[in-house]
Specification:
The complex is a heterodimer of chains A (about 280) and B (about 325). With about 280 residues, chain A is an all-alpha fold. Chain A is built from 15 helices and no strands. Chain B has about 325 residues and is mostly helical. Chain B contains 14 helices and two strands, in the order ααββαααααααααααα. The chains are: A mainly alpha (about 280), B mainly alpha (about 325).
Chain lengths: ~280, ~325
Amino acid sequence: MRADQRRAAALVRRVVLYLALCVLAAPFVIPTVWMITSSFKPLNEIFQVPPSLFAAQPSWDAYAEAFSFQPFARQYFNSVYIAIVVTVVTMIVSSLAGYAFARIRFVGSNVLFLVVLVGLLVPSEVTIVPLFQMFKGWGMINTHWPLILVTALAGPCVLATFIMRQFFLTLPVELEEAARLDGLGRPAIWWRIALPLAGPALSAVAILTFLSSWNLYLEPTVYLTSPELFTLPQALTRFTDAYGGEMWNVQLAAATMTVVPVLVVFLIAQRQFVEGLAHSGLKG
Amino acid sequence: MTAPTLVDTRGGMSADVPPRGPLPQRLFWTTGRRDALTGYLFILPQLIGVLVFVIVPVGLGVFYSMNDWNIFTGKMQFVGGEHYAAALSDPQLPAVLAATAAFSGGVVVLNIGLGLLLAVLLNRRFRGVTLFRTLFFSPVVVSVVAWTLVWGFLLQDNGGINAVLEAVGIPGANWLQQGSTAMLAVVFTQVVRSVGINMILFLAALQGVPGELYEAARIDGARPRTIFFRITLPLISPTLLLTAIITIVGALQAFAQIAVLTEGGPGLSTTVLVYYVYQQAFAFNDIGYGSTLALMLLSFVLLLTLLQWQLRKKWVFYES
């Protein structure tokens, strides 16, 4: 009898937990689902009352229109290649610096590390006005250089360097000592011993950097003026008709397409990502 | 070490063996020195990046803030503290600062509170726990602008939220056009998109808490609440500090959400400092005043970070 009651109480608790989680999850999930399903609807069906979740007659029209309305393929390519270049450069730069700060003794390393950390605290909006003037002086306005250079070497890269340093601090020194006895120099130790072990930290760095490049909005808005140079976040806000009215179905189709590359990056790096965060000193 | 010799002592093909370097150089390049040089070379790209793209611009920003810059004629005129005085008497600034405080405060409290709640709920083992973790994390995959556009649609007067409310018989609101609800909408949209990252960080931290501690506490008859506040919270406090810093800096930087969802309106109700800086510098071309406001933003970030860093001694617990 007692055991029965206890089992019933456990069941009730479990049902309550699931219900609470489902209610909590609704605002997290419904917008994405709605974004995807509505991109297959004609415009009038999007505004239908009561709203429907699925299209009555799904069509790919909005997807085709996204490509014909503005140079969307080009903008898509811009975002993808910039994010990839930024991610690769950041992985190299941050793992070099992170390794040096964690493992190599040199005069002033603590002070220089503090200097680098300043890059983590200064919001990009603080530097955007002077940076605009600097890039203007270098003739780089309306090019992709500002988006690549600043993202790959400053802001997000500093967080990456911090993560890499924390990770390398946890690697056993004995591994390197053994390698040194075998006659390997520092660059070889970094490349052949440290990096292969840093998979989890590197994938955390890869995901965070890819995301921050992918989500840039203020920078492209400030630096770019030609539509064929735009990146996706900028392009997404430009789907308006001749009267300034928003072409919602086209916008939603375009927005849906922007999810794909991030999903791919996550599928590649996801498993190591969580492990990487757990190992890089971000845990308690 | 023997002196270098051109005679190959190993015998045989001496012509193929290059002569060793001269002695003085070998002594200078000790392992320690070579190591230090490698260290400097390794950090060089990162250091240059921070110097050129962060520290120099901050310095330039200070310079701009003390000058009047006519961008059409390119003429620069030194005005000293005039822009700072202008900021003090700017009739719009109090509203902007209030909006900044409301937005950042709301985002930080909800982001950390909800992130911790979700992490604790999803740190147990039950059927479907991985699915729920993925669901709460999923908005991170959707780009900020796409996510904001969708919420903008759902929240507009004839959008999905009101349609659902209408179907249930509750009168909706014109969420984005009313001063009282626009800020709520912006905060909500931002929190739902980004809380997944905090949840993952907290989950990683929770999984690092040794199980023996929980067992010991349970054997001692501690209640779940006591266990949470006495064991869990202190042990994950370093993560709490880090996420607090990241979330505050991130909240003070939110631009895309505001620009896409409300454009700072209605009135100034959602014009946060970052958006105001952008307006002054790039819409009104007032580089000097924009730079002054940007430095104000920087001082807030530094002040808050410093404050947290000092306070950490009071509440952050380090095992060692």
